[in-house]
């Protein structure tokens, strides 16, 4: 399989339809908004990733979901050579998940916001900061060694 990364595609893993819409609305205010693929749970996310020829440049993932939660999905992604280089940003209303998610390999954490502008600012920070780009390429280089 020929795998490449498309810089402006993200995977949103979120079971709540209102939160999906909220996230996509926040993205619509970003200059050059990325293409958004949506999975309703961790299993759907893994299915999308395993079937993809073009991997997303970043994953934004909720923690509390049915079928497969975000922690289990993150653990799976970080153990897959072709997937573990994709930066994962965890979304949760509960900040106590941050340390666990980072220990498993998440590169960022966004506490679920009540304001679209706050969420948009957080998403832009995660998508477009050199820190994320550097972490992504560090992981990618480690995978190739």
Question: How would you characterize the overall build of this protein?
Answer:
With 145 residues, this protein is α/β, with parallel strands linked by helices. It has one domain: Response regulator (Rossmann fold, 3-Layer(aba) Sandwich), CATH 3.40.50. Helices cover 46% and strands 23% of the residues. The chain is built from 6 helices and 5 strands; from the N terminus they run βαβαβαβαβαα. A 5-stranded parallel β-sheet has the order 2-1-3-4-5, with helices on both faces. Helix 1 (17-28) packs across helix 5 and helix 2 packs parallel to helix 3 (70-78).
What keyword list fits this structure?
Rossmann fold; alpha/beta; disordered N terminus; 5-stranded parallel β-sheet; 145 residues; 46% helix; 5 strands
SSE class: alpha/beta
| Element string (H = helix, E = strand) | EHEHEHEHEHH
Q: CATH superfamily, called what?
A: Response regulator
Number of helices: 6
Strand content: 15-25%
Low-confidence stretches: 1-6
Q: Report the major sheet.
A: 5 strands, parallel
> Cα-atom Rg, whole angstroms?
14 Å
Strand order of the largest sheet: 2-1-3-4-5
Helix content: 40-55%
User: Would you give the CATH topology?
Assistant: Rossmann fold
**First-last Cα distance:** 20 Å
Shape: globular
Kindly report the oligomeric state of this protein: single chain
Total strands: 5
What is the averaged pLDDT score? Answer: 81
CATH architecture: 3-Layer(aba) Sandwich
The figure for the number of domains is 1
CATH class: Alpha Beta
